[in-house]
């Protein structure tokens, strides 16, 4: 039997590309640049399976194709807000993602940003490299203490829980949660956590807030000018979820006006373009979407996407089916 035709839209770690070739008739994107919407439409007509990433445009317009041959989108990544699920479902295309394998590394990068923003690490390094450091002094570059403070977490899935674990057990932080669904008593007890039913309350009661909810239209600008106005002036806001969850202009203004203390961002609305307001905002640490960027995790993401794809063509329900 011939192997299913699989398009991998961006380059993967070598070990996973090799594994893919054992089971599929693979096409790689040698240039490793994101596909345009027309390329994606052609791909939907030409391949049995596509493994897209967060950089691919799979909105309703992209799915406006006839004679679709693609049967599964085995997304390389946990977030799938770049895929219009109703359109995929209408065309009978199965969609899977890669949860679990990136929870630790994403929580690690959220901690990295939290510590960097609180302790002014980016600013300190820039001062030193610019040869502007005048030496140690008691009043130099004073930041915010992290240990023992209150950490608010928005979205309490696997990554949110990994963040709670780091904050609570590693830094003795008090954990507060905002989640639309009720967090189980067992989980709340594990982190000695308290759940609030509004983002405003969480912002009012936290020294640090870290975002771990999905992106997409339902969470677009969940953090905005009106609720940022209610935050403590000490607040340090961290986003490793999706750029659109924060109104970036409102965030830049809040930093400029010192409504909040600092922020750390790994994700951006419309990335890789960065809103110019963020470029000039003070007390802001930015990373280029590095949450899952470790060798181990990027390999595991690929193996997980392949496992889903193989299960599908073997007639099973893929373990990470989201639509
Ligand atoms: C994901 O998996 O959704 C990340 O944002 C990409 O690593």
How would you describe this structure to a colleague?
The chain has helices spanning 14-23, 37-46, 85-90, 103-118, 121-129, 158-171, 185-190, 199-205, 225-228, 248-256, 276-279, 295-313, and strands at residues 5-8, 25-28, 49-51, 72-74, 94-96, 150-154, 174-178, 194-196, 208-211, 236-239, 262-265, 284-286. Strand 10 (236-239), helix 10 and strand 11 (262-265) form a beta-alpha-beta unit. It is α/β, with parallel strands linked by helices. It is globular. Helix 1 (14-23) runs parallel beside helix 12. The protein has a 7-stranded parallel β-sheet, with helices on both faces. It contains 12 helices and 12 strands. (2R)-2,3-dihydroxypropanoic acid binds next to loops.
Whole-number radius of gyration? 21 Å
Low-pLDDT sequence parts: none
Q: State the total count of DSSP E strands.
A: 12
Going across the biggest sheet, name each strand in turn. Answer: 8-7-6-9-10-11-12
Class computed from helices, strands and strand pairing: alpha/beta
The separation of the N and C termini measures 27 Å
Catalogue the ligands: (2R)-2,3-dihydroxypropanoic acid
Helix fraction by DSSP (H/I, runs of at least 4) = 25-40%
* Coarse morphology: globular
Give the helix tally: 12
Average pLDDT figure: 98
Percent strand: 5-15%
Major sheet attributes: 7 strands, parallel
